[in-house]
Amino acid sequence: MRDEWSHKNVTKYLHTMIRVSDPEATIRFFDLIGVKEFRRYENAPGRHTLIFLAVPGEEKTANVELTHNWDPEDYQGGRNFGHLAYGVENIYDTCQKLADAGVTINRPPRDGRMAFIRTPDAISIELLQIGESLPSQEPWASLANVGEW
Asked: Which end of the chain has fewer CB atoms surrounding its CB within 10 Å, N or C?
């Protein structure tokens, strides 16, 4: 990896880490938006598992690291983290697929451009329409005062 960009005088984004209480539920959640597991590391002495996710083909450029501590912890305040952001080909179709799967949509895509959803551990995920905003579409346009993130 170093040879790939060592000639550039830049900082490169590597990954974002979030702690999760139920790794399999979180992996299923990310799978719904096309983000897949590509590496897992079990650390028995440290009593934790690291699971790396990425959009297929982007494993070297944009990763999410899920950290699962084996000893139970209560993770609160997911919004304190901020959010992860992913571009999607059709914001309405993506949000409908997620809603049908029971995913909470905190801010609907009423503008055809942006939505916020949340993981099983209440981490905010921003979805952005790739390219131009889509024209307003029902039922999303009617949700103007619902679910602010």
From this structure: N
